[in-house]
Each structure stands twice: as C-alpha cells, then as structure tokens.
Write a structure and sequence with these properties.
Elements lengths: L1 H22 L12 E2 L2 E2 L4 H34 L5
Antiparallel strand pairs: 1-2
Helix pairs in contact: 1-2
Length: 84
C-alpha cells in the first residue's frame, strides 16, 4: 500500500515539475538580471532555471538515499553476527 502511495506522490511531483518548466519557457520568461553559479553565467528562461533546480534536488535526494541505505546496511551488519 505504501508503495502505491509513493508512486502516486512521485507521479504528482513529475507532473508539477513538467508544468513548471513548460509554463515558464520562452522569451516572456527570460532571465534579465546577471545570474551566475560558481562563475558560470546562466542564460535562458526561468523554466530552464527551475529545471536545473529539479535536477540538483534529484541528485541530492539520490545521494541522501545512498547515504541512508549505506548507514542502514552497516547498522544491520553490526547487529547480527556472521554465520559461516
């Protein structure tokens, strides 16, 4: 049941993200001020900037998931003795 709920939430997040990117593209939503990240000048629209934010958030979420999975695996290995 929780997997189905997770898939519904994931689908809703994808729909909201796509809507945000597609509705903020074009010349009407161009970045007008000088915007730079780590010395790299970002050009394009606010939709592009929103897409970059989605990608950075997804990478961070994957990293956090790997960190928590590794911690859980390490914790589980310390609790149960190895049977050989």
């Amino acid at each position: 049941m929780i997997i189905i709920f997770g898939l519904i939430v994931l689908l809703a997040a994808v729909i909201v993200g796509l809507t945000g990117v597609l509705s903020n593209s074009g010349d009407g939503h161009a970045l007008t001020d000088g915007f730079a990240v780590f010395g790299y000048h970002v050009t394009g629209s606010t939709g592009t900037l929103f897409l970059y934010g989605i990608v950075v958030g997804a990478v961070g979420l994957i990293g956090l998931g790997l960190l928590l999975a590794g911690a859980r695996r390490t914790s589980g290995a310390a609790e149960s003795p190895a049977t050989t």
